[in-house]
Amino acid sequence: MITRSATMKDKPAILRLAKEQTTRYPRLRSDVEKINGAVAEVIADSRHFTQVVEVDGQVEGVLVGITADALWSQRKNCMIALWVSKVPGGGVQLLRGFRDWVKSGRSIKFAGMAPDLDLDPRTYWILKRIGFERHGGTFLLYN
């Protein structure tokens, strides 16, 4: 298992993983064209974060962080839009890569995620262990 930055070659696998996640929202219709464009944009633009977990040449996990202007503070924020791994330990490696990427620059003031689904309780422990702070239902990483 390796984690690495995503490339355009990974787009079909990322789209597959994203589409699988849309089944968690049965009342929403996914927009394949919008997802396709968004994935291409985050891969091509270095201000966003996109890493994958690869096993034997197959992408089995992804973490996508989308960077935007922060509404309430100076500098930017980067929120996790997609985080999934089918490989034990892969999700943790992706999260550590995201943390290290955020901490390596000064343009992002905070990053994080706001889970809208029930997560395995171990996930909350992992987020805290890696350095995220819980604020209500949101987990933030300050830089």
Q: Your description of this structure?
A:
The protein is an alpha+beta fold and 143 residues long. Helix content is 35%, strand content 33%. The protein has four helices and seven strands. A seven-stranded mixed beta sheet has the order 1-2-3-4-5-7-6, sandwiched between helices. Strand 2 and strand 3 form a beta hairpin. Helix 1 crosses helix 2. The model has no long low-confidence stretch (mean pLDDT 92).
List its salient traits.
4 helices, 143 residues, alpha+beta, 35% helix, Aminopeptidase
* Estimated share of beta-strand residues: 25-35%
- Number of helical elements: 4
Portion of residues in helices? 25-40%
Low-pLDDT runs: none
How far the N terminus sits from the C terminus, by CA atoms, comes to 29 Å
The helix-strand sequence is EHHEEEHEHEE
Name the CATH superfamily classification.
Gcn5-related N-acetyltransferase (GNAT)
Pairing-aware structural class of the strands and helices? alpha+beta
CATH architectural arrangement: 3-Layer(aba) Sandwich
User: Using only CA atoms, what is the Rg?
Assistant: 15 Å
- The total domain count is 1
CATH topology: Aminopeptidase
Main sheet record: 7 strands, mixed
Total number of beta strands: 7
Order of strands across the main sheet: 1-2-3-4-5-7-6
